[in-house]
Amino acid sequence: MKEVFPDTARVSDDGHLVIGGCDTVEIADRFGTPVMVLDRATLEARAKAFASVLEPARVHYAGKALCCVAVLEIVRDLGLSLDVCTGGELATALAASFPTERITFHGNNKSDAELRMALDAAVGRIVVDSFDEIDRLDRMDATADLMVRVTPGVEAHTHEYVQTGQEDSKFGFTLAEGVALEAVRRARDAGNCTLHGIHAHIGSQIFELSAFDLAIERVADFLASARDELGFEARDLNLGGGFGIAHTRDEMTPDPAESVSRLVSIVEREFSARGLPVPDVYIEPGRATVGASAVTLYRVGTIKEIPNVRTYVSVDGGMSDNIRPALYEARYEARLANRMAAASGPLVTVAGKHCESGDILIRDVHLPDDIAVGDLLVIPATGAYTYSMANNYNRIPRPPIVMVADGRATEIVRRETYDDLLRLDRRLDGSELP
Ligand code: LLP
What we know:
By secondary structure, the protein is an alpha/beta fold. The protein contains twelve helices and 21 strands.
């Protein structure tokens, strides 16, 4: 159970799932369902594990995985840095009083307003991603600390939608045809900017760490030519995020500290082999920092058995709070949080409540054969890219996030209300609703 549930998860004498010392059945009663329960201890332990190899400030939490003020406050207090990729994520960081020198600003299509916001906030690094962006920084006569994002031409074995390192990508500058070299030359000369190094993120949910080895080799080759042709030496090398985590019992989460130590030693080996100075390594783990720390609780609302076909167990959330199964065929597992000791039974399908057949959370999962309406279904490992990708399809309000620690449950994001949903609507004549 520990592999996919938060570290503090245990089962109480009455068979309830307890996380962070809080009974999840009580949480569901108090905050309603669906609800995301975030275990502070697990989040902190994962963040510290990454920071045990590199100094904390060289570990950037990728805010896109889960971006809300309280989570960023925790990351801030652990001394980690932060990767943001939009003005909205930066605004959240500023609201969390995140030290701006520890913020790196990403994005393949930053608007002028976003660049201005990043410059005004004096973020630590802007990662430039296109010639247009470099030109704009130049025209703004910006004073900024830059990294150049390159695509090392590595196809990480992960879902196509979350691969980013391959040649054919909307992100970064290709190493081929001298394109990235030209980007380095122009970024170095732009405005009053200082170019510190290179950024390469190859994808997400990567289990085969050898994909990183190849990326590092290619970046080292590239930097050898940047030295020879431009006299440029990178002080910083940001290898992005992408470390995979288990979502089901048959997957294994690679150890964060081991993964990072491995990267660092390969950087040392590859850079030394080319007579290059060994750069400072930075990483940006999002999923592996926050993914395992949360579970989502749902209430079972209807159970429909289609004889000889399939049993649908429908819950009170779905693709609006977790779009990953519909979008990436992501797999999850489930248990009954109110009856953790119940023996698992036949395969069923867990469906959401949205008006769409594709709204399936888990295609096949073994649940107790006496599963009943009113049971509390828990899906573990939902901390990353669920709330941050949540939407209001079918006008379903987004769930709250409740943080648990030492027996205390605190709502860090409240449940959306129908009033929230209507807040932006205007009448036909443009007037506001009462
Ligand atoms: N750095 C950069 C530049 C990135 O683009 C990303 C993720 C990360 C770091 C963090 O990657 P992580 O450590 O979390 O794998 N929505 C998808 C994942 C998209 C990831 C986008 N970029 C999903 O639900 O699987």
